[in-house]
Structure formats: structure tokens, C-alpha cells
Amino acid sequence: MTRLSESDIRCIGNRMENYNRELVIKTGHTLSEIAAHAVGISQVNEGQIDNLGNIAVVPITSGLGVIRGFAETVSGILTFLGAKAQVMNHSDVQGVAEALERKSEMIFMADDDRFIAMHLKSGYFSENSEATGKGYAAALDYMVNSLENRSVLIMGAGRVGRAAAFSVLNFKGKVHVFDLERKASETLAQEIYKKSGSRISIEENLVIALRGHQFIIDACSEGEFINKEHITPESYIAAPGVPLGIHPEAIPEIKPRLIHDPLQLGVATMLFDMIKVSGIYS
Known about the structure:
- This protein is α/β, with parallel strands linked by helices.
- It has helices at 6-9, 16-27, 31-39, 70-80, 92-101, 128-143, 159-170, 182-196, 206-211, 251-254, 264-278, and strands spanning 54-58, 84-87, 106-110, 115-119, 124-127, 151-155, 174-178, 201-202, 215-218, 236-238, 258-259.
- The chain has 11 helices and 11 strands.
- The strands form 2 sheets. Strands 8-7-6-9-10-11 form a 6-stranded parallel sheet.
- Helix 3 (31-39) crosses helix 6 (128-143) and helix 3 (31-39) packs across helix 11.
């Protein structure tokens, strides 16, 4: 996962209601509904989330250490969605032990490299990078009223872009991918063909790719490369990438048709991935 900073997540917990309203305005759906769509749950009954049991968020101190407020922010997002989430008093192995002592059903935890949610009873885990790619593809699908038979440009062939590509194909869209390292695009294309039999298009030129697509998923870690000249009134962008790839001067042009956040949609999709495993929804 991209390592966030304290400034990236500051005030997320206090803005969840506003964030959710903005999603409804842009996509016609709530955060819960988008996350459910991402994992193939057709109907959301938020009251049933209470049946999930306790969710533990465990701070992890390895690598560069804990991002101040990260665990609390994750817990706040889960609580907003209706889950019974709590940050453990202890970190690392002691925190995991505390979660088990509390009879938690799930554990959310992250280090510098991976952010996962574990469903303890089944042993299944959800990876944030994959969940984020799925969540943003689902948000774009709702925002444009279906991706079926529409071309989607995916910027970045890493873990988030990979998941987004598979999800776009599941929504019956057509995938075009651009990565600064062509080998990464080729590897993704080969994997998709091997697993699904589908072929995707590899874009060679960034400017031509941006100008040639209305629907974009920015899943790379480069900032401010999408300029005003690349945006039209028909452009729609779902941008899980951190930092945001859109130049500040271009944001007013795309803001009504832009989905971007540092954490919320990925965490929500992880939760609904866990919900699907739990059998609460079908």
C-alpha cells in the first residue's frame, strides 16, 4: 500500500457524513452501496452489520512505525458503516492477542507494505490494494451509469490497477492500461488473458491515452500529471492513487465527476469483502 501521512487522513472521521453525501450526489449511491457493489453483494441492509461481532483494529509499529491517527481513522470508518470496531490498547503481537482475548471476529492491521483485514473464523483475508481497486471500479461504474461496452483507461499496472482492471472486466467494460514501465502493462495483460481469456489494450503514449479516454482510473503514485488539457466535460475519473494525479488547476474542471479519497472506499470494500465471507449477505 502507499504509505499515507498524518495530513492525508486528518479529519476523515469528522467528515464521513459529508463524504457520504458527496458520493450520493456523484454516483447515486452511498459508501456502503458502492462497497457492496464492488464485491458482488446485491442488496445492503446496514442493520445486519451488527451481526458481524467485534472488529479489532491493531496498530503495527514495524518499519517506519504507526501513522498517528491511522488506526483510529480506520475504526471510525468502520463504525460509520455500522460495524462494532475498536482500536486495541496494545500494538503488534500483543494487540493481536488482545483482539483474540476480546473474541473479535475480524482484525484490521497495516504495516508499511500491506494493509489487511482478517476474518478469523474462515481464515480469509482482504488486501487493501485489491479492495481499493475494486471499490474505485465500482464507484466509476455507478458514476457513469454502467461501464458495459465502455473503454476505461487504467493508469498504473500495480496491485491497485490490477484489481481495478479485473473489476472493470467484471462490469463488462473494456480495459486500456498505461504504465511508465511497459513490462508491467504486459505482465498485467498476460495475467488477465490467462485467468479470464480477455484481452486488454496497452497504451504507449501518456498524452494520447489521456486525451483518448473519457473514463479513467488513476491507480498510480505520480502526482499532478493530469492537466486541464486532458479533461473534457465528458471526463470521469476515479482516483485511488496517492498523491492525486490531477493538477490543482484542473481540479475545478473535474471535481463534480471525480472520486478520490485516501482511505474510506478501500476500507469500506475490505469490510464488505469480510461481510460476504461471513454469509450475512448473499
